[in-house]
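Data deposition worksheet. Section B asks for the primary sequence of the deposited chain exactly as it was used as input, without tags or linkers unless they were present during the calculation. Section C holds the resulting structure in token form. Section D is free text for depositor observations; keep each observation to a single sentence. Incomplete worksheets are returned to the depositor.
Section A, Depositor: J.P.
Section B:
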Amino acid sequence: MTRTIYYTATTLDGYLADEDDSLAWLFAQRQDPAVTSDYEDFVGDVGAILMGRTTYEWVLRELGDGAAWPYDLPTVVATHADLTAPAGADVRFARGDVRQIHRDLVSAARGKDVWVVGGGDLAGQLADAGLLDELRLSVAAATLGAGRPLLPRRLALGLRSVVRTGDFVSVVYDVLGPGDPVWVDAPTPDGPVP
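Section C:
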């Protein structure tokens, strides 16, 4: 069954990027083979990617002119802007209702998972529509104080796992729905909270 998963790195205070959309905080973290292994395990189950315009434009800037698109999976960019795809890349642009965009992504994923790469608001829109299944966060020992928020929404989450991955804490949550948690129904590794 296809799951829609928001997998990203975040600072301890819940930011994806600083106010200038920089990820310098992320690249300042010590690299560890455990982080690479975690990513490779995750991406092996992914069949399609969704990202917002800001993330897409950031990836293109980081790649530089003429560089190959880093993903060999169908990628949908949710945007109202007129953008172009890199040569040879399966990059599609979508606007409109997030439910239709999601249906198209699930079809493109062919039974594998959908990865929401970036865009806290985009992930929030999916959650609002009941279409976001899971958060997979790599939490870094860094704070920004301001910037692009991880999720500008209230979501009810159920903690599934916590693992140290190098200098990060990898946390996996099931998305229970929009709003505040209903603690008695929140799943834990040992069952419902008493």
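Section D:
The mean pLDDT is 88.
The first strand starts at residue 4 and ends at 11.
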